[in-house]
Amino acid sequence: MMKRRSLIATAGLALPASARAQAQAWPDRPIRLVVPFAAGTSTDIIGRLVAAQISRGLGGATVVVDNRAGAGGSVAALHVAQQPPDGGTLLLSTVGTHAVNPHLMRDLQYDPMRDFTPVVAHSKTRILLVVRPQLGPRTMAEFLALARSRSVSVASPGTGTTGHLGHALLTTTTGIEMLHVPYRDAGRAVTDLLSGRIDAMFYHTQFVRPHIEAGAMVGLGITGAGRSEALPDVPSMAEAGVPRVDVVGWWALHGPAGLPASIVGRVNGAVNAALREPDTLAAFARNGVEPMGGTAAELAAFQRREHDRWGEVARQARMTAEG
User: Global pTM?
Assistant: First the structure.
């Protein structure tokens, strides 16, 4: 495995001259943005937004979204790590692909620090714990009381996702065992919650908000420092009595190791400009998403902090790739 990682990490060093030449003419063909989750998920929605933003910022360049779901995003991440660093392939990275999966998957075939070039942090979102109304609880305290009295199932969008982290923090904080049900398709998890096949779910604001407003789901708590303007009636996790359940989902852009600085700079500039657009900010606010942005170096430092933090949580909660 180390030999394979080494080959991936040094791929960008083998052809420096050609990489420089390609950077000067880039983009000379469609850019592929690899999204690590299925179409219709929160990550896919963000990915399509990012693709449009890059296209605008690069004067109308073609950016194609390539959904490659599987193994908590590691299928997509490995694929991008193995591509030539010519700007033809970028990854929409997540907290799972670059901060959590390395601690859960012993056979992970990429190194999130060594095998990628950080480009730019894009956006972040809080997550909520929601339940189906028929379950009974209307508050976190009532839900925890129920979980003490009988088994409850808590779904997430998959291994290593923010939902998985939320479940781990909730169980370690309260000392209550709850069945974690990781889904490969978050849309299927939402459907199963609405139909009563599962009891509860951790997921992003933009996907559960319509169901909460329609009365089809009950929001028990949302992560973050206070209540969200998008869902003002849902208490924060601190208000709900579980302040340590503090996890935020984030999306960023990474390229293969060795991606030329000129390409990094152009994509970084395009995304940062888009994140300042009033229409983008208004759409984010409606969906409980916040802009990030910044330099590639700032993304690298942020990623390291997240990697270290979630590694400690994974060890304490004994998180595994199996749930």
Answer: 0.88
In the predicted model, is pLDDT for residue 13 greater than 70? no
- Which band of pLDDT confidence, cut at 50, 70 and 90, is reported for residue 158? confident
Q: Give the C-alpha separation, 165 to 64, whole Å.
A: 30
CB half-sphere exposure, 256, CA atoms < 13 A: 24
CATH homologous superfamily for the domain 126-222? Periplasmic binding protein-like II (3.40.190.10)
CA torsion angle 172 159 303 21 (round to 10): 180
Q: What secondary structure letter does DSSP report for 13?
A: G
pLDDT for 187 equals: 86
Segment 88-104 mean pLDDT: 96
Show contacts of 10-17: CB within 8 Å, 24+ apart. 10/257, 10/258, 11/82, 11/84, 11/85, 11/256, 11/257, 11/258, 12/84, 12/85, 12/117, 12/256, 12/257, 12/258, 12/259, 13/258, 15/84
* Positions of CATH 3.40.190.150 in the chain: 2-8+28-124+249-317
Instruction: Write the CB contacts of 190 (distance below 8 Å, at least 6 apart in sequence).
Output: 201, 203, 207, 208, 211
What is the assigned CATH class of domain 2-8+28-124+249-317?
alpha beta
Binning pLDDT at 50, 70 and 90, where does residue 7 land? Answer: very low
Model confidence at 16, pLDDT cuts 50, 70, 90, reads: low
DSSP code per residue over 121-179? EEEEEEEEEEE-GGG---SHHHHHHHHHHS--EEEESSTTSHHHHHHHHHHHHH----E
DSSP-assigned letter for residue 105: -
Q: How many residues are present in the chain?
A: 323
Q: Is 67 helix (H, G, I), strand (E, B) or coil?
A: strand
Angle, CA of 21, 8 and 54, to the nearest 5°: 55
